[in-house]
Write a structure and sequence with these properties.
115 residues, mainly alpha, 3 helices, 0% strand, rod-shaped
Length: 115
Amino acid sequence: MNRQAEELDRRRKDAYKEQQGQQRQLAEQQAKQQNVQALVDRLAELQQQEENLLVEIGRAESAQTVATRNWIDGRNQPYTDTKEAGLPLLGGRLDNVRDEKRRVQRQLEKAQRQQ
């Protein structure tokens, strides 16, 4: 009788350990999936930032071109568009966003390989 109780107790402990291992694996898998989703979301956010900056840069460059043409045509109109002065800053921000995008892309690729 004592042997049967010990055997039953051992089986219960083994089953409990197996269940704990499965739960741990499931939790790890969920954490990996959440990490991948967070990276995908961040990448989309950075893509939107890049597109917005490109639009701003395009507008500033267009304004700069118009001002240059007006000056060449002899219209000598005062040019006070502040976007032109911000071109270097916008270019720097664009570089930063692209660098961050590359870093996140590498992290995402690594995370996807580990799944």
